[in-house]
From TrEMBL:
Name this protein carries in UniProt: Ammonium transporter AmtB-like domain-containing protein
Natural source organism: Cryptomonas curvata
Keyword Transmembrane: yes
Annotated spans, Disordered: 158-180
Sequence intervals crossing the membrane: 28-53, 104-124
Subcellular location: Membrane
Amino acid sequence: GGVVVGFLGGGACSTCHHYLRRWLEQKFMITDTVGVVSLHFVPATIAWAAGIVKIAPYGGPERGKWAGLDAAAAQTRTLPFGLEYSVVFMHGEGTGDTAKYQAILMPVCMCVGLAGGALTGAIMKKIKGPSVARTFSDSIFWKVPEDFKLTEDIQKSDERAAQMKQQKKRRDERMMQGAV
C-alpha cells in the first residue's frame, strides 16, 4: 500500500509541478517559486486521503500487539509516556473515530498554516529591508572579489537590453492595434 501511495504522490508531484504551477500563475497570479503546492501539498493530500482509507476499518481486535494495559511496559520503549495506541489514536474501539480525527487533521493544519503565513506576511510587510535593486547583489551581504562589479554591470546591461526589447515589443503591438 505504501509503495502505491508513494508512486501516486511522486507522479502527482511531477505532473503538478509542470501543469498546476502554470495554472496558478495564469488564473490567480500566484507564483509558487519553490514548489510548495506541487511538491508538498499535493502528495501530502494523497497520503492524507490514503491514511483515512487505511485507518477507517481498524478498531478493537485489529489494534495488534500493543493493545491493552498489559503491553504498557513494552510501550514505554516506543512511546515514552506509556500511552496505549488506543489512547494515542483517540478511542480506537472500532467506531471509526480514528478515521474521523484523521479527516479533521489536514483542514486544521491548513488553517493553522495559512494563519501563520498571513501573520508572517503582515509582519514582513512592516519590516523595511534593502531596496529591490540592492537585493540582487551579494555585495551588500558578503565580501566579494574585486571583479564582482564587472559581473553586476554585465547583468545590468543584460537587464537593460531586455527592458528595451520589451518596450519595443509593446510599441510594435500598439502600432499594430492602431493600424487595425
